[in-house]
Amino acid sequence: MPKAAVIYARISQDRVGEGLGVKRQLADCRAEAERRGWPIVAEYVDDDVSAYSGKRRPAYRAMLEAIRSREADAVLVYHVDRLHRRPIELEEFVDTCAEAGVKDLATVTGDLNLGTGDGLLIARLMGAVAAAESDAKSRRSKRKMLELAQAGKPSGGGPRPFGFQPDKVTHHPVEAAVIRDLAARLLAGEPLVSLTQWLQDNEIRTVTGKEWRTVTLRNQLKSPRMAGLREHQGQVIGKALWPPIISEDEHARIVALLTDPARRTNRTARSYLLSGLCRCGKCGGKMVTGQTRGRRRYMCRSGADFGGCGGIMISATVEDLITDAVLYRLDTPELAAAIEGRQRADENTAALSESIAADAAQLDELAALYAAGDITAPEWMKARRIIDARLKANRSRQAQQAGSTVIAGHIGNASALRTEWPAMPLGKQVAIVKALVDHITIAPGTMGARSIDPARVEVHWKL
Ligand SMILES: [Zn+2]
Fold first, then answer.
1. What is the helix (H) or strand (E) element at residue 459, kind and residue range?
2. Could you tell me which CATH number the domain at 5-136 has?
3. What separation in Å is there between the alpha carbon of 256 and the centre of ligand 1?
4. What PROSITE patterns does the record tag this protein with (predicted)?
């Protein structure tokens, strides 16, 4: 019987992680110790967040030290996968235990005896299994999602839905009333665009603080959640735990109305080279693409979804003008110099990717902490804001770097590119244009002009 057992717990990367939260691991281990009659002399807890950024797990090292110095003679963990992330770490653990004569390693999920050959073998096997388990984690998390869905419970991560409190179950009194009002008005025939405008006029924002758009409002109003139904992977699978905001009958009518093919606006697949790149010379708004009288155009549009002045339109033949400008620019020595300078500055690309991966992992970890009840929603949001901001900045730097890679092979070789251009897929053309062009400002034109006056078009170069 051990005289000085220790508990080791670790916060994992397991996003759902119910049962693996540190509190739960510790509670289960303490109960197991009591059942076995092992006296606990210390508890060690690590946080995988720091392990991810390359630091060693300090509590784990302290525990090994306690074993080495004979202060501990038995170890209790929730599962072997808490103890080690890689088989190589297990070897060090086994060696340390062997030297110190520690033979008792117990887990809540099944125990091991390190003193026998079998125990060691099992521990090694379990270590190998733990290494393979990171793959299984996504499977477990999917299963967990399904379980939550089947129980009618809300899913773990993400922001609260509009109309509900952060617990995703209790109604938000103001927002729930807004939804009921909008649903009734929609069913009475008011167009979605007018409802969206009303939300904007009343400064009612989405839960992430953004302005509503018809597409977000459409999804909001036809969401089964509003009728107290639980959806899983796009399918309603039963009643939810939360009370409905609108009735199932209203929900069914809204879905029928909003998915009526006759109502759908005609959104064609992307076929515009300069989508998102043109700015209105009058109001500065983003110009959108579309057809008027059968001709492709870029235009500034007013209204809830667009927010422009509606004052400028230009024929899509502006694409030819921009293509020429881009191909011409690819031949300039200034561009070659700019690219070379940028590539030197970008030698830390790998560091950037690492930082992005670490931040993404940390966000997952925070979600797991929140799901396990170890931190509150405000704490979660606060921590997320900081990481999100850094992640966004790093991702945009990464995207810019990718941009210089897109055109690297084409500098000084524009005539070959010019020959290929007409047969090139639009996606590739767009990538090349976007690598060079930040945006294009379109000035007002003369009524009735037959071709585009190049003076209307001002290109703002990235490079
Ligand atoms: Zn405008």
1. strand 457-461
2. 3.40.50.1390
3. 35
4. RECOMBINASE_DNA_BIND, RECOMBINASES_3
